[in-house]
Amino acid sequence: MAADSYHQTSKIQIAVDCIIFGFDGAALKVLLIKRGFEPEFGKWSLMGGFLMKNETAEDAANRVLHFLTGLKDVYMEQLHTFSALNRDCAARVISIAYFALIDINEYSEQMQRDHEAKWFPIDDVPGLIFDHNLMIAKARDLLRMKVASHPLGFELLPEKFTIPQLRILYESIYATTLDKRNFQKKILSLGILHRLDEKEKESSKKGAFLYVFDHVKYNRLQSGELKFI
Amino acid sequence: MAADSYHQTSKIQIAVDCIIFGFDGAALKVLLIKRGFEPEFGKWSLMGGFLMKNETAEDAANRVLHFLTGLKDVYMEQLHTFSALNRDCAARVISIAYFALIDINEYSEQMQRDHEAKWFPIDDVPGLIFDHNLMIAKARDLLRMKVASHPLGFELLPEKFTIPQLRILYESIYATTLDKRNFQKKILSLGILHRLDEKEKESSKKGAFLYVFDHVKYNRLQSGELKFI
DNA sequence: TCAAAAGTGTTTGATCTACACCCATGC
DNA sequence: GCATGGGTGTAGATCAAACACTTTTGA
After folding, report:
1. Which one of A2, A76, B33, B120 is least enclosed by Cβ atoms within 10 Å?
2. Nearest CA to the C1' of D3 belongs to which residue?
3. Looking at the domain that runs over B3-147, which CATH code has it been given?
4. In this predicted model, what pLDDT tens digit does every residue of A142-180 receive, in sequence order?
5. CA-CA distances (angstroms) from residue B55 to A10, A11, A162, B88?
6. Computed over its alpha carbons, how large is the radius of gyration of chain A?
7. Is residue A96 less than 8 Å (CB to CB) from chain B?
């Protein structure tokens, strides 16, 4: 840092934007809102907000996420900081983008109405304001990279889930199909799932066993890196 | 974003910091400077600077890097944005950190003296100002992740390099040892190196063949992801 | 002639892929 | 009793890991 610039005010504003992913059992989705103020009133947008003087960017992202979803303690990770000169047409604003993974079932209809929010399939996102489409593309890439080796997929599912649900989630994230025998074998061989004595019977007559992610076993591994796919 | 805050001035300053990696043939190193102004005068630090109104963060990072090293067109990538409330003891400053890979031979002695800069082995970095040690740790993790599947290692070597040099580089980055037969087999099987009819004879009597990275062949692969290690 | 680093192949075990049938149940 | 999705095993191919000797040449 050059000493002479230390006390200058940058006059550049700082925002955070949240890419919120959810999974409805069939497709990976992102939560978007219809923007309620100028500029770009009425257009679809990511949820965001300005960084306040007394909060970190993580705090701000959590504040925004909580405001939109009512949820706390959500899995969230910094994605990238976007600083193109004209990315926001109204002012010079840089945006620190975060991506979050939530269980779509915990996001209420009420919240959806309150904020004019809507879930869009990741492959069918409309044209968004500013560089928000770019943010989503980047978030999807990072999500793909992370779920291949970290236990994040579970964040998008209910606490109890079935192996077929998990497989369809991975298929949605990677836009591919996976062999169900090989998938089940590999996932179970990681030794981080615990099978319950309950079955989920919504999607089939036979019913599929429910599993929970076993944090204790996962932490014992301490390699941090696994191969989910 | 909340409409009412759109026109407020954040009064938070924005800086960039550069984690500059180099490789001297034996160890992975980072370039640090002795800070020439308050606060924290005389302490070791990463090179940084404030973001100017009319430049992107990438521009600023390149400006800082060019100022310190005289180099342009350097491999550089955004690492993370650090926004802890008291990370800079003098003011509220958030820092967008970048990591850069340079060929250590292109960094002149003269530049080193001009800026009171010094290369430190990655495992022997002194206590730095603010959160700069954290930045370096995070940069090393990202470097490890990236070089496993992307052709970045070459950025740290001269244009012409030998396979043993490349292997020692990977050994330094991962703090491990690699079997030279397996390494050579794997690297050459990627099909992205071109062997020259020259040998490098500094480090052995027999001499080792020089190779260059073949961008054309690499781009033809278009998978983007390889397995270097 | 010897010291120092370069170069090279094979065997073994592990992992990945492809693939098809029976099971349990609600209708 | 039949349609629907759940659950399971094996064989072949590919990939990763371990491992030791010969070559070159400057000193």
Report:
1. A2
2. A205
3. 3.90.79.10
4. 999 999 999 999 999 999 999 999 999 999 999 999 999
5. 11, 13, 49, 22
6. 20
7. yes
